[in-house]
Specification:
The complex is a heterodimer of chains A (about 500) and B (about 100). Chain A is of the alpha/beta class. Among the domains of chain A are: about 160 residues, Rossmann fold, CATH 3.40.50.12780; about 100 residues, GMP Synthetase, Chain A, domain 3. Chain A is globular and about 70 Å long. The mean pLDDT of chain A is about 90. Chain B has about 100 residues and is an all-beta fold. In chain B, the strands form 3 sheets. A 6-stranded antiparallel beta sheet of chain B has the order 7-2-3-9-8-12, with no helix packed on it. In chain B, strand 10 and strand 11 form a beta hairpin. Chain B is globular, with a radius of gyration of 13 Å. The model of chain B has no long low-confidence stretch (mean pLDDT about 85). Classes of the chains: A alpha/beta (about 500), B mainly beta (about 100). At the A-B interface, helix 1, helix 6, helix 7, strand 13 and strand 14 of A face strand 9 of B.
Chain lengths: ~500, ~100
């Protein structure tokens, strides 16, 4: 429906690819229609994709919706065994695969494979069928497997009505000028990668894809394609800042980039401050959301960034690290362990409600309360003006001597030290305290700092019970490819620094 | 009187306007250009928007009644104005949000 409107409203605009010779909205619509016939003929229950971003992504995303089948973007970086396990959970299905590794998913019962090129050859120039699809909005649009940090991956389920209310509530139809282009470098299996396609199609903004992120390529593509907006995860922005810094003060910068949004993890304040300096004409947006909430539920806008950066008021300045305010269509509350709302400024769990919030999983009970509230499992607090501060996953909170300690606040202090490139705080078993605080620190090349010096910095800035019991210098921290710190991996790597007690 | 449910589509009988229902359920006297709207695909018998209901519709805009119990999205623009009974629907101003994706 969204794409049909785009094709009707501005069919000749370029939807995808280079401004000269890219796929127009009309062509994308026709291709999705042809793809839907192929998907229906296959007779499966799902359409999946285990491949990098390409034109085949929007074609199969909209083609699956046209055919009334859920679209399942799979993480192509998983091992063959992990990928096969997920594939058998959605069988019978057709899976779009990378032509460079065509054998990865062969021999699974009920799974048909179609290469990216095969799909694009099929839809090239063919006549689409008459539009015919379920308009109730109840059908499942997307099933996204969560990263499964705590056990078996769950398939979060987003219905058409969730995604449509997100898009209608946050995007102006044809709101983009014809010269605008959005660079998408997050992979299809990240909810932001899907939201980027939907929002930009509805806005009429040309999408440029970077299938494999590399900061140098990203900067070059922004320049080559005159990209006006982009979305990145924090680790990507850190690398981009390094590339721009290396070009020196007389470098060309990124003058076409009007808007840069980021989300998907905690942004280190040195990175965002430096980015604000390097890109003085770019509007920064911090978007907070989850897969289960159809992407963004709160955002910190461009003016709020610059205002926070320029302010001497610590409350206003702290907002640079906040997720901003909830979208007008979203309600947010902070609650305690019992589900009761806490006072302004008090920490608790972030709960959200709104028409875009799904909170449903395939094969298990929805996590929504009967009145539509979704507990995010993220910890946070809200300031007096309604700015939401996200402190991290509740499961990651360190409990030392009965006190809850958010790793995020310790990490934030550590990365502000000039010698520190990256830092992570975790809790490990301690007979006396329940957990002891371990800080894993990556130093900048050539820089030095002693463990005591870093512990003192934390003690001076935070309360003494936040001070790391031990600082361990490491070469790098484990991240997944969408920039999420893998604390589970770090905890097991550093397990020898606990005392082995089980608390 | 047409029966509304989210996702159902209606077409104007007096202009090119088409809408899709975003919110609203049950029997609603949905009109465009002063004339009752028809289920999508139904043949129109021509005519012109009535005086006072000829402000036109805009592609991609949402229109709501004052209580926000009925909300429709314009998927094809035309010369008529949308209404429920004799009351015209209001254009729902999108809240300007910076692009987050």
């Amino acid at each position: 429906m969204l794409l049909e409107m785009a094709a009707d409203g501005f069919g000749d605009r370029v939807a995808l690819g280079p401004s000269d010779g890219g796929l127009t909205y009309r062509e994308l619509y026709d291709s999705a229609g042809v793809a839907s016939e192929r998907f229906r003929a296959d007779g499966g229950s799902h359409v999946a994709m285990a491949d990098l971003s390409s034109a085949a992504l929007p074609v199969s995303l909209f083609g699956a919706a046209w055919a009334g089948l859920p679209f399942v973007p799979l993480n192509y970086r998983l091992t063959d065994d992990e990928l096969a396990a997920l594939a058998s959970r959605i069988s019978p299905a057709i899976i779009i695969v990378d032509p460079d590794s065509p054998d990865r998913l062969t021999g699974i019962d009920g799974i048909g494979l179609l290469s990216r090129h095969g799909l694009m050859d099929l839809v090239e120039g063919a006549e689409p069928p008459e539009p015919e699809w379920d308009m109730s909005g109840e059908g499942t649009a997307i099933e996204l497997f969560t990263s499964g940090t705590t056990g078996e991956p769950k398939a979060a389920l987003l219905r058409h009505r969730h995604l449509v209310s997100y898009v209608l509530g946050s995007v102006e139809f044809m709101g983009a000028h014809e010269d605008e282009a959005a660079l998408v470098s997050v992979p299809p299996y990240h909810v932001a990668g899907i939201a980027a396609i939907l929002s930009n199609v509805y806005a009429g903004r040309r999408v440029v894809q970077l299938p494999t992120f590399d900061a140098g390529d990203w900067v070059a593509l922004v320049r080559a394609e005159s990209v006006t907006s982009a979305m990145v995860v924090p680790t990507m922005l850190t690398r981009i800042v390094e590339v721009l810094d290396a070009e020196g003060p007389d470098g060309p910068g990124l003058p076409t980039l009007r808007s840069l949004s980021y989300g998907g993890g905690r942004m280190p304040s040195p990175t965002i401050l430096r980015a604000l300096e390097l890109l003085p004409t770019t509007a920064f947006v911090n978007a907070y959301g989850l897969t289960e909430t159809s992407s963004t539920v709160a955002l910190l806008g461009p003016d709020e960034h610059r205002e926070a950066m320029a302010s001497d008021d610590p409350v206003v300045r702290a907002r640079l690290g906040s997720a901003g305010r909830p979208l007008p269509t979203i309600e947010v509350t902070i609650r305690d362990d019992l589900g009761d709302e806490v006072a302004v400024g008090q920490p608790g769990e972030i709960w959200v409600r709104g028409e875009q919030v799904s909170g449903e999983y395939r094969g298990s009970a929805p996590r929504l309360t009967p009145d539509g509230w979704f507990p995010t499992h993220d910890g946070g607090w809200m300031d007096a003006d309604g700015f939401l501060h996200v402190t991290g996953r509740i499961d990651d909170v360190i409990v030392k001597g009965g006190q809850n300690v958010s790793p995020g606040e310790i990490e934030e202090v550590l990365v502000c030290h000039p010698a520190v490139a990256d830092a992570a705080a975790i809790g490990l078993p301690d007979m006396q305290w329940g957990e002891r605080i371990i800080a894993a620190v990556v130093l900048h090349p050539g820089a030095s700092a002693s463990p005591d010096e870093l512990r003192d910095v934390v003690r001076d800035r935070l309360r003494s019970n936040r001070t790391p019991d031990h600082v361990e210098f490491v070469g790098s921290l484990p991240y997944n490819d969408t920039g999420k710190l893998l604390r589970r991996v770090l905890r097991s790597d550093l397990a020898h620094l606990g005392d082995g007690s089980t608390g | 009187m047409p029966s509304l449910k989210p996702g159902s589509r209606f077409t104007s009988s007096v202009c090119t306007t088409q809408v899709i229902v975003v919110k609203g359920a049950g029997e609603v006297d949905l009109r465009c250009g002063g004339a009752p709207m028809l289920a999508a695909g139904a043949a129109t018998d021509g005519g012109l928007p009535a005086e006072g209901a000829s402000g036109g519709t805009l592609m991609g805009k949402r229109y709501v009644d004052p209580d926000e119990t009925v909300e429709v999205l314009c998927t094809k623009p035309g010369d008529g104005s949308l209404g429920v009974g004799d009351a015209l629907l209001d254009l729902k101003e999108a809240k300007p949000l910076p692009a987050s994706d």
